[in-house]
């Protein structure tokens, strides 16, 4: 199945064109995307570091995960809401960018993992679970940055 | 200073980094990703000072156990940031966003120093308070503001709007 026509249609869509033709819209959206990335990093890391016996050692991991979950969701929602418009403005470039496809694959796994398995692994005090969580989100962010290079 | 940066930009290492296919993107990605380690953790500490995140965790647990990890992230940012600067000193030096970014980093550092020199001295009295005293909340809010500004200026530096 050839997906390119769909990507071309997305780039030609209203929001895609508006962002592409604006001098400042893309950079501004990008800044919010980066700030949300930092928040996601903090919200994910505090629980995962705790499982690795680093950071807030006096707090139960389950409690940290539960209390940070709203912040993680806020960060994730902000990342998606800013990521989609950026994608629309350069959908065809993304189509030809290997890091974009790696990022989307990893992102799907990272979201599924975080919303399903993670809570159980935190409850079990799983160190491999913490490493997997950090690894998945690191991969998403790293691949994301490389969309600009390749 | 300009002459020194001109000399720096002409050195072999600067040129090699600037034109490298892999090294530059790797340094750049490291710089961006250490943002999660640094601002992610310090930002949550700021949110704790505001009484918004993890209000049940004593502030001192953040300053003694989260802050040092954040400092590691900061070190990675400074080292990768210096390398990025080294790869194009003139471009950075003449960029308005770079200059504002440096000022904001100084302000963020000053805010942290003043926080530790003032209200933090009595932290024993309020470390477990769900809502810390106004002076501590102000420090948290200013930290979030300054560091967010640093991130924004850092990103905008790539767009040469006013050069």
Largest interface, chains and sizes: A-B, 34 and 30 residues
Largest sheet of chain B: none
Helical segment count of chain A: 8
Strand content of chain A: under 5%
Overall tally of structural domains of chain A: 1
Helix content of chain A: over 70%
Average the pLDDT over all residues of chain A and give the rounded result.
95
Order of helices and strands of chain A: HHHHHHHH
Cα radius of gyration of chain B in angstroms: 18 Å
Q: C-alpha Rg of chain A, in Å?
A: 17 Å
Secondary-structure element string of chain B = HHHHHHHH
Structural class of chain A: mainly alpha
Total count of strands of chain B: 0
Strand content of chain B: under 5%
How many strands of chain A?
0
Tally of discrete structural domains of chain B: 1
What does this structure look like?
The complex is a heterodimer of chains A (150) and B (163). Chain A has one domain. Chain A has 8 helices and no strands. The radius of gyration of chain A is 17 Å and the shape is elongated. Chain A starts with a helix and ends with a helix. In chain A, helix 2 (14-21) crosses helix 4 (61-89). Chain A is mostly helical and 150 residues long. The mean pLDDT of chain A is 95. Chain B is built from 8 helices and no strands. By secondary structure, chain B is an all-alpha fold. Chain B has helices at 2-10, 12-19, 23-49, 59-86, 89-93, 96-117, 123-126, 134-156. The model of chain B has no long low-confidence stretch (mean pLDDT 93). Chain B is elongated, with a radius of gyration of 18 Å. Chain B is 77% helix and 0% strand. Chain B has one domain. In chain B, helix 3 (23-49) runs antiparallel to helix 4. Classes of the chains: A mainly alpha (150), B mainly alpha (163). At the A-B interface, helix 3, helix 4 and helix 8 of A face helix 3, helix 4 and helix 8 of B.
